[in-house]
Known about the structure:
It contains 8 helices and 2 strands, in the order ααββαααααα. The protein is mostly helical. It has a two-stranded antiparallel sheet. A hairpin with a 2-residue loop joins strand 1 and strand 2. Helix 5 packs across helix 6. The protein is elongated, with a radius of gyration of 22 Å.
Amino acid sequence: MRKKPELSLRARALQYLARREYSRAELRAKLLPHAQVEENFEQIQPVDLDALLDDLTARGWLSDERATAQFVHAKRSRFGTQRITHELRQRGISDELIDAQLPELKETELESALAVWRRKFAHPPSDQREKAKQMRFLQSRGYSMDTIYAVLRLGDHHDA
């Protein structure tokens, strides 16, 4: 049996980027285990991962801005601003890029929370226990307390 040839670091990076947008920090973390040493023509050469990432960024193939926009677009209909912000920070996105997305996220947060609430719960809470359950659900999705209270008020009026 022939052994599958090992991919170069650049080829591996391009395969990842062909599937979806990655932040620089995410792509660096994915490539790091493969970047320790790279074999090339029987000799071992150290690979400069940061130089590769700089090159991919310079060519426009790697962009934190695009990765942020794609992530926000994918998650905004299911999660609140707090959760999206937290996940972007975990992905290594800078605070400046996150702050640029916040006005747009906050503008649609109530609409998004109401849609999530309606999909999960058919009726407004009938007692305090049910109200607490619905509030915890919306909190787990990353919605602010102001938004949660607004959703429950609107839900009451919607059924009336």
